[in-house]
Amino acid sequence: MPTTSTPTGSGQDELVFLDELPRQPPAAPRDAWRVMIVDDDADVHSTTTFALGNLDMGGRTLEFVHAYSAAQARELLARERDIAVILLDVVMEQEHAGLHLVRHIRETLKLADVRIILRTGQPGYAPEIDAIRDFDINDYKTKSELTRIKLYTTVTAAIRSYEQIRRLDDSRRGLNRIVEAGTALMALQGVRDFAAGALVQAAALIGQPASGLLCVRGEAGTAQVVAACGAWQACAGRVLGPDTDPPLPAALAQALTAHCNVYDADAVALHLAGKTKRTFAALLDVRQAPAELERKLLDVFAANVAVGLDNVELMSHLHDAAFYDTLSKLPNRTRLIEILDATLAGPGRGDATLCLVDLDHFAETNDALGHAFGDGLLAAVAARLRDSLAGHLTVARIGGDIFCVLGPADHVHPAAILALFQQPFEIEGQTVQVTATLGLVRLAEHDGSGTDALKDADIALKRAKSQQRAGHFYFTRNMGVEIRERVRMMHALRTAFSKHELFLAYQPQMDLATRKPVGAEALLRWRAADGRFVPPDRFIPIAEYSGLIIDIGEWVLRTACAELVRLRAAGHQDFTMSINVSQVQFRHPQFLQVLRGALADTGAPPRYVELEITESMAMEEPETFIEMLAQVKETGVHIAIDDFGTGFSSLSHLQRLRLDRLKIDRAFVTEISGASRGSSIAEMVIQLGRNLGLSVVAEGVEDELQARVLQQLGCPLAQGFLFARPMGAGELSDWLEDQARLRA
């Protein structure tokens, strides 16, 4: 694979700099600036070469050196010389291959003059802030934003920077001073500290006392002082203009408006031409006008400081984006975890409490009034929490409508936090009343990391929301065990379903008068790989919680319908198949389509298919349920209310439901004994069914006394161990044949 390409043009220009200083022996002149492209995508090499093909710098064209991996780049750089610019892909063989190569270039090869431009094809990726600062990276761009003009501009700027540095190399004294100054500046954090350091370093560069100021251009001929020292110290933070006292110095005003460096007998003004939207300039008091050498040093220094300001502002922006929420300006999840980790490792851990604050029904507000209104509400909540609590506590927004409060337990008090929501919020001229639910963790009782503490608080929050909105709940270790067991069970159930460990058992339903089988209830069972059975009351709630019940429910429906068709083909024509349907399944938007598909694909007659729903399902959002039930009934299937009597059904509501059958819960059947009052509830359900014109089935019949009493009370149908236990499909067929022979 070729590593170099022919120069794109011809021309020659000898490097000349500062005749006043001794020069190194001149290197052999080259015809082109050498640009290395390091990228594992061959198309990037070809498009970059094409885009830069006409670039001409001072009569010198470009020669390209190609490396298709970080390893190949290391080999080439070990022997290639005079590389001016490296266009480097950040992510190649490994995620950080590009940054490791930068470290190798700067620290191992000691190549301080080559200019490095980072590129990435991953818009969400950004190098570490420390890498931008410590390894003298000229620029960082996503490949999608590097249009030909921007690429041309970026490379031109890098070559100019390289050319200046190489010229400075001919003057070791100036170069060493600038490098030392740049190193010192890059160690500073924040624009203000960097600006103050730049004033000190610029003065030292020309051997003058540090007295001056660094400004950013404002409006109407004004400038905001970012940093000041010496005679100008009192101006720090002020806005200077033509009419202020003191006024904006003339040399500084000229540098800001003319975009140039100004050298006077008593002042030097440096225009710091960065790539940000803000324009900076620095003023230095001098005892005498700088000499030619000093001017050139200051020119280069100003260019480096401008790049440094860009980088510092970029780092500040990246820091804010990484650690602070854009909307609320509060610490975000990442920053909160840092604070949590520090708290857990520090002496304040024993008295600290973490509290998640979740706005109730925020999604509905957002949908009804619009996202702009929702953003305004979130900002208002953030402001109230910050203004009321931030003096003692850390307030953060960790995502969506969830905020966080962290601090001493006596300040993180649920009642005090919830009280902040008693007053309504004024948003866009509207008054909005908002409540919140809290989940809390006492860090003294927590053993893990900050991330783990957030997870525990979220568990407590979910428990609080499930029990009482606008309330609170503290995390306990038992809750952690429960949630881990739920997650384990969820993964095990998903695996079991895919490996066909789930199956259907069928319990016959009998006519109490004739003792003839009239149907069966399909019951879902799980036999684990080790042969043990997992109780349905353990895994069905997990299936509903995880949403897996949708796929499992469809499989149950199709399997039971297919078994009904096989039984009918075997001669059991008047046989009904009862199939349980969960609330999650019944309310799923695709349930009707799934039901129709199962009936059509299996050929099961709808009038012999009965769907069992629970009493609680019928009572939740009754109007929606009635509408959905009517559509289900249009398919021709029958509907039974399972476990009737365990809920709180309204009789008037029951009359509006198009039901076919009530099932007496086994708890009421068990109460039937010789006592006179033992059958009272069962008798009420039977009478209710008769009055509403509904059939009745009793569940859990285990002895003849229960069967006889139920029959005397007028219950027509029953199921239970007295007649048959749940059995597999093959066993059911054999059992039905045996029953037919016994009656023959």
Automatic annotation (TrEMBL):
Gene Ontology molecular-function annotations: cyclic-guanylate-specific phosphodiesterase activity
Residues bearing PTM 4-aspartylphosphate: D89
Q: Entry's InterPro entries?
A: CheY-like_superfamily, Cyclic-di-GMP_PDE-like, DUF3369, EAL_dom, EAL_sf, GGDEF_dom, Nucleotide_cyclase, Rev_trsase/Diguanyl_cyclase
Q: A Pfam family this protein belongs to? A: GGDEF
- Gene3D superfamilies, sorted: 3.30.70.270, 3.40.50.2300, EAL domain (3.20.20.450)
Signal peptide per UniProt:
none
- GO:BP terms for this protein? phosphorelay signal transduction system
Residue ranges of every copy of the GGDEF domain listed in the record: 350-477
Instruction: State what protein this is by name.
Output: Diguanylate cyclase (GGDEF)-like protein
